[in-house]
Amino acid sequence: MLHFSRLKTAAILITIAVGLLFALPNVLSQNVLAHLPSWLAGSRVTLGLDLQGGSHILLEVDGAALRKERTEQVRDDVRRVLRDQKIGYSNLAVRDTTVSLRLRDPNDTQKAVAELRKLATPVTNALFGNSSGELDLAVSSASDGMVTVQLTEAGLSARMRSAVDQSIEIIRRRIDQLGTVEPNIQRQGLDRILVQVPGLQDPQRLKNLLGQTAKLSFRMVDQSMSPQQALEGRPPPESEVLQGQDGQPYLVEKQIRVSGEDLVDAQPGFDHNTREPIVSFRFNNNGARRFAATTQDAVGRPFAIVLDNQVISAPVIREPILGGSGQISGSFTVQQANDLAILLRAGALPAPLKVVEERTVGPSLGADSIQAGKTAAYVAGGLVTVFMLAVYGLFGLFALVALAVHIMLMFALQSVLGATLTLPGIAGVVLTIGMAVDSNVVIFERMRDEAREGRSAISAIDKGFVNALGTILDANITSLATAVILFLMGGSGPVRGFAVTYILGLLTTMFTAYTLTRLMIAYWVKWRRPAKLPI
Fold first, then answer.
1. What is the rounded distance in angstroms from the CA atom of residue 481 to the CA atom of residue 447?
2. Closest Cα partner for 461 from 382, 389, 517?
């Protein structure tokens, strides 16, 4: 156990050197980092929200809006199916999550129900990804020709899960384009999303970005009457009055000529003539074709650009726009144009999000947390140093060198993996200091036991490492399994932050406390050939 080949020795030393290389940027100043290669300068531990400050927002998917939108979609599907099948009906109405109608000819009931049941889709099991056997729609009928289409609870729950999953991805895309690092975005319960953005001290801008659904549509302005007449009387059935960003009402058609789903890019910029901030957009092939057809047929008419049921602008189409691109202007500030471009590039949320909780962690509080963590680490390290030197002497010094390498490798791994260090993570660092020392204590005590049984110093050292290996592996593997479970099952960021640090600490402990300590002692034995165990 005390023999190390040159290859094994070189591998250990190279591992330590590489670890030092990647851990070093964490203690260097910004001026020094500026002269380092980008791949090395970027290798730094990311501080979590509780250490560097930032914004914390808890969002809730608007279930009522999601149900309303789904019910209206079902109503439109019902209308389309019955029209395609040439089945007459009347009194089509929506109440809560139910669409009801009366067939003009009750003899069409069986045919209508059969066709409407084709609209239902199986509900996917959230855990296993297969069909649960339930449908998202329930169709029923009465003898008088009354037909109802009901949204099932299983279908609504599945749609809510899908909406949350989709919202998480869209939120991540929006935040990533802010230029922040390592946001923590995760599901909380059935309909809530936790968003933590370290380093972002402007929660209002974050709320503005996340609070908008960003559903963009292009519609024609209805010029059959003025918006005031529509508000005072009754607007045409195929049109509605929407408020504009400038505070003026607009009468626009309900028909969406081009949807924001056809956008492939949106970028902020400036108008060449007025130098005002604008947002340039570009459609995919389908959107470009529809946009060209619409502008060709509507030259001279105003064209409303609608975002979340608010008219951003309503320019008059001067000539057909055939290139599949255009621009949005609306007296934006530079930041508003940039944020709108971010919203359009990231895509629309499937449902509105409501802010349930918000708070901002200041950088001063994070600095206090870091200082408290450093103090705890210094105290723990000092007590461990005194204990190891007092009890084990020279071997205690070897253990302390291995402990320093252990801490260095742990931060190097966190830097390479891009892990986020949180306050619980600092607690994990302090805890692994004790774990690393404990492995050396087990080895040294086994050496003492072997020496008491009459073995020579070299034999006692060798047997101490051999007999302690099983105990060290059992203890660390058991702790590692627990830490992995904690990482997988711990929902919150702080819990996972602790688990990540603890896992990395256990891995480096098994390397330094056994391998590195054994290497140092092996070379000391080869050099001194001790006749007595020095502990």
1. 28
2. 517
Using DSSP, state whether 224 is helix, strand or coil. Answer: coil
Q: What is the pLDDT of residues 199-256, one digit of tens each?
A: 776 777 778 778 778 888 889 999 889 988 888 888 888 899 999 887 889 999 988 8
Give the DSSP H or E segment for 326.
strand 325-328
Using alpha carbons, select from 381, 384, 518 the residue that is nearest to residue 447: 518
First to last CA, the chain: 19
Positive or negative torsion for Cα 218, 286, 341, 316: negative
Residues in the chain: 535
Whether residue 307 contacts residue 214, with contact meaning beta carbons closer than 8 Å, is answered with yes
Average pLDDT across the chain, whole number: 85
Total Cβ atoms within 10 A of residue 220: 20
DSSP 222: P
Q: In this structure, are residues 524 and 393 in contact, taking their beta carbons and an 8 Å threshold?
A: no
Distances (CA, A) of 205 to 198, 201, 208, 232, 336: 14, 9, 5, 37, 10
Residues 472, 475, 481, 487, CA torsion sign: negative
CA dihedral for 458, 461, 464, 466, sign (positive or negative): negative
**pLDDT tens, position by position, 96-154:** 899 999 999 989 999 999 999 999 888 876 544 455 568 889 999 988 889 999 999 98
* Cα dihedral 455→459→462→468 (10° resolution): -10
Q: For tokens 């608010």, what's the residue?
A: 310
Kindly write down the DSSP assignment for every residue of 386-429, as one continuous string: HHHHHHHHHHHHHHHHHHHHHHHHHHHHHHHHTPEE-HHHHHHH
Supply the DSSP symbol for 529: -
Tokens of 365: 């509080």
- Sheet of 184-188: strand order equals 184-188, 192-198, 54-61, 353-361
List the beta bridge partners of residue 148.
100, 140
How far is residue 516 from each of residues 400, 401, 508, measured CA to CA in Å?
Answer: 11, 9, 10
Mark the ranges of the chain whose per-residue pLDDT is less than 70: 1, 125-133, 179-182, 201, 362-366, 369, 490-493
Cβ-contact 140, 116 below 8 angstroms: no
Flag whether the pTM goes above 0.85: no
Residues 6+ apart with CB under 8 A from 228: 249
Provide the pLDDT for residue 493. Answer: 62
CA 337 to chain centre: 25
| Residue 311 neighbours by CB under 8 Å, 6+ apart | 242, 243, 244, 245, 250, 252, 304, 305
